[in-house]
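In this supplementary section we document a worked example of the pipeline. Step one takes a protein sequence of length 177 as its only input; no multiple sequence alignment statistics are reported here. Step two produces a three-dimensional model, which step three serialises into structure tokens for compact storage. The input and output of this example are shown verbatim.
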Amino acid sequence: VGEVTQIADGLVLNCGTISESRLNAMLISGKTSKSREIPIVLDPVGVGISKFRTSAVHKIITEVKPDIIRLNASELKSICLNIKNMSGVDAVNIDSLDDTVELAKKLSLGVSGISDIVTDGKNTAVISGGHAMMKKITGSGCMLSSVIGAFAAANPNNLFYAVSVAFGLYASCGRNA
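The serialised model returned by step three reads:
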């Protein structure tokens, strides 16, 4: 993975099928990306569901320091508040949009949901316009993370703008579909 990462313009780390060997590969690829200063997107799928998954996500955040974390409200709450989520990746809700924005500012990220939130800790955008059916499509968040990775690779000097545009385009595609 180190050699492949040497020729990449961006990196998306997806924890959907995390294992010990995949975690090690993600750490190698992430550290290579950091040394090359290319944008890194982390999708912490299902963080909070198991001790291994939670520990793996925290290890990636600590050792790789991704530029962007794309997650949902359940995953945000698990990372920021250390809340276990034993019911599934979309099971935990946050009381309000304002509460979600405040939690999101702790990380540089995009939170997908009824209203999407993009923040770098200083700037915040709330993006609406998707469709409720998107939540019912397995992998739609993972696909969004890949779109964000492509937009970040194309505009690495303005990640807030790149991520905001990626969320807006994805919402528009979902609504149109």
